[in-house]
Design a protein that fits this description.
Layout: H1 6-17, E1 83-85, H2 86-90, H3 94-101, E2 112-123, E3 128-138, E4 149-154, E5 166-171, E6 177-183, E7 204-206, H4 208-212, H5 215-220, E8 229-234, E9 236-243, E10 246-258, E11 264-270, E12 276-280, E13 289-292, H6 317-328, E14 333-336, H7 353-356, H8 361-366, H9 371-389, H10 392-400, E15 403-405, H11 421-424, H12 427-445, H13 449-452, E16 466-471, E17 478-487, E18 490-494, H14 509-519, E19 528-532, H15 543-550, H16 555-562, H17 581-586, H18 594-611, E20 614-619, E21 626-632, E22 650-654, H19 665-673, E23 687-691, E24 714-720, E25 727-734, E26 742-749
Parallel strand pairs: 13-14, 14-15, 18-19, 19-20, 20-22
Antiparallel strand pairs: 1-7, 2-3, 3-10, 4-8, 4-11, 5-6, 9-10, 11-12, 13-24, 16-17, 17-18, 21-22, 21-23, 24-25, 25-26
Helix pairs in contact: 6-10, 9-12
Domain PhoD-like phosphatase: 273-546, 558-723
Biased composition (Polar residues): 161-179, 200-219
Protein name: PhoD-like phosphatase domain-containing protein
Length: 761
């Protein structure tokens, strides 16, 4: 449940009040909440990489130095694979020194606002990997002659060897922990690297070739093999944003890579600039992937409360843990399960304040959208996306692990789709939904329907994985789900549960029809289908709370609507209903969605039985981790069906949040107490539902009472067990707030052990 706590809500209300009285500048315009400038080219990919100055003594460490001290008082520092001493530099010619120390620069120059971002599409029947790169450039500072070009390279004869990762912690003599070292090697996207060419260590410099070449070249120095390939692709202009700061172009570069027998590293660069790297699996390999959700902070939460020693931001610690696992065994896909950013601060834009300040819901519903508000909405989404997707450790991840993203409400605005129809149809709210979904498709999926169309028949869309539904009731675009290959035994459905959502509908019948049509066409040999849905489908339900908050006799709602006793934060700013009600209405178990939920589960059971495919769910949203399970209802006097032989056996892995604050302890305790409650909702189709006691110990290994729900920041790494055929979901839970180091809680789901087409037990 998206509940950061009472104190955070009060803080958010106070902050919101500061924006209610907006003033125009002397130009007659309002100042935006967020306003960004172009990226420094040295920070592309999330890594500052400045050219070295004249040799001199090492600079003193900054206040929040990311590396701890050795016992002798000196600092840990990253180990570079290739260095050159001052003596060697002095013996070189000027040309050689220039070549050694030169930093890669784009030629012709592009002024980046965001990117590069990586997207994964799918692998086709011929074993061709399909994906894309997106960059956003400022037109006034870029040169487009010749056309922006992406170059990518791979070598099928060379086995990938990811950069080694070192993590060490420091402590005082009393054993108290003070910090951590995050040495990800000289990757050009490292957001926490402070030992750069500008800070030489022991009179040595990292050479330019060691910084920008592929890690495989850096480690073994081998020349490219005879089958090494290099491709160039021209950028496609898919959209132009125009605002007070000028015009900005979205460039998309499509990538196609024939898979080899083994895993490969692929390097890429835009206009001969910095080289970045990602990994693709072997042709017969099931992919390693990471799942995350809720990549931002709720209003009123102080990010610095989650910033441990050595971190520049509370956003980074758990992302750095994910990146450390990526350097040990690279992930092939990064699955964003919703709320990849929080857009609720749109309500702080000056142009929105007159609408926000209307106390009566009827006034908000009838308020007409002005041209100023339209411009402010686009300005906010553009600035907010650029700022969020190019910052910190997340920038490193989205430029080095291809993304598969699906939106949830905060990618648009808090609760969108779960308010009453008359509120959703209000001119201002519809505009927010339409533009929020437009920017989601652009930044997270690299799609512009005006360019790419809305047809998903083979050959009619730029992405092979796309499954396009019907136009939404409040968003003037159809839903965009995807069905992607994760290996010969594994596929993933990213189900769009937001574009067609309303209070009594998650997905339309038309969307379900298209999705199941594609599922039934999956190739032979697939054993696991992962269904990514933003909201958990097997999770403790709070029907009593939903009823209490909907009641017109609830005194807290009445006081909140009147602004009495400081309870304005108890009701939302859109239609003055209870603040938590939109979260409860979002849930699959809400009254308006329960029948659809039961039908959807039954259809997936039929699919599982007929196609001999194990179905598992991955969800986010609730800011804690848990694992729910659906299974065949045990008959009296008969043994329980083993999971491997049960087509109804489906786990729901809940991983949330990688950044946001967990719910208050009281909420965690309440939800945990409901985890073992018996629900008879699905007994008519012989299905039982419960929660798995995954968290029998806390992150330090000590036994704990609450075994079903873990209220600490987390993400999940997923791999296929080559020995058993099981899919292993390893939920990585942050051990200590702000430190980023995680403990693992693995959960396994077996391959199907029944015959295709067999009847349900």
């Amino acid at each position: 449940m998206d509940n950061p706590g009472w104190h955070a809500q009060r803080r958010a209300q106070k902050e919101q009040n500061l924006y209610l009285h907006a003033h125009r500048s002397h130009h007659g315009t309002y100042n935006p909440v967020e306003q960004i400038g172009p990226m420094d080219e040295s920070f592309i990919g999330g890594f500052h990489n400045m050219p070295p100055p004249s040799p001199g003594p090492p600079a003193l460490p900054p206040k929040d130095f990311p590396y701890p001290r050795h016992h002798n008082g000196s600092y840990f520092a990253p180990q570079t694979q290739s260095t050159v001493t001052i003596t060697q530099l002095a013996g070189m010619s000027a040309v050689e020194r220039s070549q050694t120390l030169r930093v890669a620069r784009m030629e012709p120059h592009l002024q980046f606002m965001c990117g590069p971002l990586l997207k994964y599409d799918t692998v086709d029947e011929q074993g061709i990997w399909h994906g894309a790169v997106l960059v956003v450039t400022a037109d006034s500072g870029s040169i487009y002659e010749p056309h922006p070009t992406l170059v990518y390279e791979w070598d099928p004869d060379k086995r990938s060897q990811p950069t080694q990762f070192q993590r060490s912690s420091s402590s005082h003599s009393n054993g108290q922990r003070t910090g951590a070292s995050f040495d990800l090697g000289p990757h050009p996207a490292d957001p926490h690297s402070t030992v750069m060419p500008a800070s030489p260590q022991k009179s040595t410099f990292p050479s330019a070739s060691s910084l920008f070449a592929s890690p495989n070249v850096r480690q073994n120095g081998e020349a490219p093999g005879p089958n090494a390939s290099r491709e160039s692709v021209l950028g496609q202009e898919i959209w132009v944003y125009g605002g007070q700061g000028g015009t900005f172009t979205f460039w998309r570069f499509m990538i196609r890579i024939p898979l080899a027998e083994h895993e490969m590293a692929v390097t890429y660069s835009v206009n001969h600039g910095q080289k970045l790297e990602f990994f693709v699996p072997g042709r017969n390999q099931n992919m390693r992937w990471a799942a995350h959700s809720c990549n931002g902070f709720s209003a009123g939460v102080n990010p610095d409360d989650f910033r441990g020693p050595g971190y520049r931001s509370g956003y980074d610690p758990v992302w750095m843990d994910l990146l450390s696992k990526h350097t040990e065994k690279p992930f092939h896909v990064l699955v964003g399960g919703g709320d990849q950013l929080y857009c609720d601060s749109l309500m702080r834009e000056s142009e929105m304040q007159e609408w926000v300040s209307k106390m009566k819901p009827e006034e908000k519903k009838s308020y007409q959208l002005s041209e100023e508000m339209e411009l402010a909405i686009d300005r906010f989404f553009f600035n907010h996306y650029c700022q969020h997707f190019r910052s910190g450790a997340f920038a490193r991840a989205n430029s080095s692990i291809p993304m598969l993203n699906m939106c949830d409400d905060h990618d648009i605005i808090d609760g969108f789709g779960s308010y009453p129809d008359d509120m959703q149809m209000a001119p201002v709210f519809r505009a927010i939904g339409a533009r929020g979904y437009h920017f989601f498709l652009l930044f997270q999926c690299f799609i512009n329907p005006a360019v790419d169309g809305t047809q998903d028949l083979p050959g009619q869309h730029v992405y092979k994985s796309i499954v396009i539904g019907t136009p939404g009731p409040f968003i003037p675009l159809p839903s965009h789900s995807t069905l992607s290959y994760l290996g010969p035994h594994e596929w993933i459905l990213m189900l769009d549960c937001r574009a067609e959502r309303k209070k009594d509908q998650v997905c339309s019948p038309g969307e379900y029809q298209k999705v199941f049509q594609r599922l039934n066409a999956l190739p032979r040999g697939v054993e696991h289908l992962i269904v990514q849905i933003g909201i958990p489908i097997a999770y403790p339900r709070m029907v009593f709370l939903e009823a209490a908050l909907e009641s017109k006799f609830n005194p807290l709602v009445a006081l909140g609507r009147n602004g009495s006793m400081g309870l304005t934060g108890f009701v939302n700013k859109f239609n003055a209903e209870a603040e938590l009600l939109d979260d409860l209405n979002d849930h699959w178990t809400a009254r308006g969605h329960k029948r659809e939920r039961n039908w959807f589960i039954e259809q997936l059971q039929n699919f599982s039985r007929a196609k001999r495919v194990r179905v598992s769910f991955v969800s986010g949203d609730v800011h804690c981790s848990a694992v729910g399970v659906l299974k065949t209802l045990k008959s009296k006097g008969k043994p329980e069906i083993p999971p491997s032989n049960d087509p109804r056996y489906m786990i729901n892995v809940v991983t949330s949040a990688i950044v946001n604050t967990p719910p208050p302890n009281g909420v965690i305790t309440m939800v945990s107490s409901l985890a073992t409650k018996v629900h008879k909702t699905l007994h008519h189709i012989d299905t039982d539902e419960t929660m798995l006691p995954v968290f029998e110990t806390d992150t330090s290994g000590k036994p704990q009472k609450q075994k079903y729900i873990m209220g600490q920041r987390n993400w999940c790494q997923v791999d296929w067990d080559t020995q058993t055929g099981e899919l292993v979901f390893d939920i990585r839970v942050e051990k200590e707030k702000g430190y980023g180091v995680t403990a693992g809680y693995p959960v396994r789901t077996p391959p199907p052990g029944w015959q295709a087409g067999a009847g349900l037990p």
